[in-house]
Write a structure and sequence with these properties.
Blueprint: E1 17-21, H1 26-37, E2 41-46, E3 57-59, E4 65-67, E5 69-72, H2 78-92, E6 97-100, H3 115-140, E7 147-154, H4 165-184, E8 189-196, H5 204-207, H6 211-218, H7 229-240, E9 251-254, H8 262-268
Parallel strand pairs: 1-2, 1-6, 2-5, 6-7, 7-8, 8-9
Antiparallel strand pairs: 3-4
């Protein structure tokens, strides 16, 4: 994206095209909705078909409702990943922003996780973003204004990730990949990472044992709450905008201040 938009709001994405992987639900849905509201044409993808009424929406300033376009794809397959990018470029004529959001992992004991399981987790969380980024870069390098790629990673890649070891390792790799691609693809394409902390999505409550568990976990965060998809979306808008025109190869950590140090809790406990 061009470094300067002197025609007005730097967060106005009218005329811009955005792909959000895994953008039909959870954090990705929040990201897609934010770009739609900012005026962008948005394409989202996922492995499962999504009915049109369930796709992310946004509203223009005049109240016009804008809806994302959906493409079904398994991004662990390089050809399908490239097809998602081609679908956006063919439909809208360009691609300005790629948000590599698709990812995740169920809990698994590292001692007994099968090779197939571990490979699948690494493929989804590290190789799939690379495949999408390669395809996006090919489009962005050949268009005026270049483009911006935002890789959604996790604090699991910055600290121990017990129970999701392969996921944490893949996310650590994604931060390194971000830094390398930012150097290789400059100056036309900026590449940044966003390491998210605890984010409240539809599955978070059941994962943490209900409202009481959510409250207990939130109390360990210095800002006193879980993040929201909207928090992540706002950072994506910034990183993709001219406001971040000199930001590339960065890893922006959004974790509410991190985690209250365990040794302080232990020291304060009665003996």
């Amino acid at each position: 994206m061009a470094a300067d938009r002197s025609d007005g709001d730097p967060l106005d994405f009218h005329g811009r095209v955005v792909v959000v992987t895994g953008g039909a639900r959870g954090i990705g849905r929040g990201i897609a909705g934010a770009f739609l509201t900012a005026g962008a044409d948005v394409l989202v993808c996922g492995r499962s078909e999504v009915a049109d009424p369930d796709l992310p929406v946004g509203s223009d300033a005049d109240g016009t409702t804008r809806r994302a376009v959906f493409v079904a794809a398994d991004l662990r397959d390089a050809e399908q990943a490239a097809a998602v990018v081609r679908a956006a470029a063919d439909r809208f004529g360009r691609l300005d922003v790629l948000v590599n959001n698709a990812g995740g992992s169920p809990n698994a004991d590292a001692a007994t996780a099968s090779p197939r399981f571990s490979a699948s987790i690494v493929n989804l969380n590290l190789l799939a973003p690379l495949y999408c980024a390669q395809a996006a870069n090919a489009v962005m390098q050949d268009q005026e204004g270049g483009g911006s790629i935002v890789n959604i990673t996790s604090v699991s890649g910055l600290r121990p990730s017990p129970g999701t070891a392969a996921y944490g390792a893949a996310k650590a790799g994604l931060v390194s990949l971000t830094q390398s691609l930012a150097v290789e693809w400059a100056p036309k394409v900026r590449v940044n990472a966003l390491s998210a902390g605890l984010i409240a999505t539809g599955s978070a409550e059941s994962h943490y044992g209900g409202p009481a568990g959510m409250a207990a976990v939130a109390a360990t965060v210095p800002l006193g709450r879980f993040g929201t998809p909207g928090d992540v979306a706002g950072i994506c808008l910034f990183l993709a905008s001219p406001l971040a025109a000199y930001v590339s190869g960065a890893n922006l950590v959004a974790h509410g201040g991190g985690e209250w140090p365990a040794f302080l809790t232990a020291a304060a406990a009665p003996s």
